[in-house]
Specification:
Elements (H helix, E strand, L loop, with lengths): L1 E5 L6 E6 L6 H4 L8 E6 L3 H11 L6 E5 L12 H9 L7 E6 L1 H13 L6 E5 L2 H7 L4 E6 L2 E8 L5 E4 L8 H18 L1 H15 L3 H21 L14 H11 L6 H18 L5 H13 L12 H8 L5 E2 L2 E2 L1 E6 L2 E5 L4 H10 L5
Parallel strand pairs: 2-9, 3-4, 3-5, 5-6
Antiparallel strand pairs: 1-2, 7-8, 10-11, 12-13
Helix pairs in contact: 5-6, 5-8, 6-7, 6-8, 6-10, 7-8, 9-10, 9-12, 10-11, 10-13, 12-13
Length: 361
């Protein structure tokens, strides 16, 4: 087991990474201080892992909440079963919520923990690659709205993150590839050595070789932990972690939540960001080709769905957390491994690149 730490002073917390952690009472039990725990999971993950986690928490009187699976169920209304369970069982501020599942379960459980009685502890046990390398770390929680993804939420850090790499054995191939989008992101924004490693080892990751996956997860978590420690509430460099996300969120919203997986939309969004970075003179065409090739090799989309017009995508992008004072701020690449945030790209140039990348074609 490897242990990383997200350094946030009194709210610092560990990330445990290793195989078979769902069969070890520690470290989970050591991070629950009250007498009551509530496990929140979904109807896909529950048959696979719920009994194992429940067994670890028997003496904490665990309450179980099973939500429907899918991004389309990441809404305020779908959170009510969590609040119903908390109130029915008279859970107090000492109750710990345990998120067992992918990014949707983690985001929803974290948001419930942030707002129930104005804040209770929670623990992340991510079971998808995307959640393990990204959404479980950093304390971003929230739900979607029909007009915008993750626009309702709060920063609420977990007590710990427990990453059992063995759970990836049950992950569908499509979900595994979706998780690789977030892994690739770290190489593109701040780590060219990792980017080169991914180019050499993407086939090993797709084949689920344990050592390759463990290295990719640890490297990704370490990278995110450093960024979150420096900018917890995304006032500066943490925004760089959103490479491809503004375009990707527009795809998810425009296509309907659940039609495209989050990682699929982010993958296409990263290619658009690379194309736009080239269009304004930062990247060179061979750089864009490297990005597109790696995304393709990870079995991920590289183009915006044709049924979304460029104007529609741009309108959806305007409902984004990175919009400030009416200006759309985009995460682009000055070079591979060097991301930046800019609000200086003309609308006409963005439209041109969106059309070149498939929008409305």
């Amino acid at each position: 087991m490897k242990t990383l730490v997200v350094e946030l002073g009194a709210r610092s917390y560990p990330i445990y990474i290793g195989p078979g952690l769902l069969d070890q009472k520690q470290p989970l039990a050591s991070h629950i201080t009250g007498r009551r725990a509530v496990i929140v999971t979904n109807d896909v993950v529950a048959p696979l892992y719920l009994d194992r986690v429940r067994a670890l928490l028997g003496h904490f009187e665990p309450v179980i909440v099973v939500l429907p699976d899918g991004e389309q169920h990441k809404t305020l209304g779908d959170l009510n079963p969590v609040f119903d369970a908390l109130l029915t069982h008279r859970c107090d501020r000492g109750t710990t919520l345990v998120a067992l599942g992918g990014g949707v379960v983690g985001d929803m459980t974290g948001f419930a923990a942030a707002v129930y009685q104005r804040g209770v502890p929670f623990i992340q046990i991510p079971t998808t690659l995307l959640a393990q390398v990204d959404s479980s770390v950093g304390g971003k929680t929230g739900v979607n709205h029909p007009l915008g993804k993750n626009m309702i939420g709060a920063f609420h850090q977990p007590r710990c993150v427990i990453i059992d790499t063995s759970t990836l054995g049950s992950l569908p191939d499509r979900e595994l590839s979706a998780g690789l989008a977030e892994v690739i992101k770290y190489g593109l924004i701040r780590d060219t050595r990792f980017l080169a490693w991914l180019e050499e080892n993407v086939d090993r990751l797709l084949a689920r070789e344990p050592q390759a996956l463990a290295f990719a997860i640890e490297t990704s978590c370490r990278s995110k932990a450093v960024v979150v420690a420096a900018d917890e509430t995304e006032r500066g460099q943490r925004a760089l972690l959103n490479l491809g996300h503004t375009f990707g969120h527009a795809i998810e919203t425009g296509m309907g939540y659940g039609s495209w997986l989050h990682g699929e939309a982010v993958a296409a969004g990263m290619v658009v960001a690379a194309e736009l970075s080239c269009r304004i003179g930062w990247l060179q065409p061979p750089d864009v080709a490297r990005v597109r090739t790696l995304v393709e090799r990870a079995r991920l989309p590289t183009r915006i769905p044709a049924q979304l017009g460029a104007g529609q995508v741009l309108e959806l992008m305007a409902v984004d957390k990175k919009v400030e004072d009416g200006k759309l701020r985009l995460v682009l690449l000055k070079a591979l491994g060097e991301a930046t945030v800019t609000a200086d790209v003309p609308r006409a140039v963005i439209m041109e690149v969106l059309e070149r990348c498939g929008a409305g074609t």
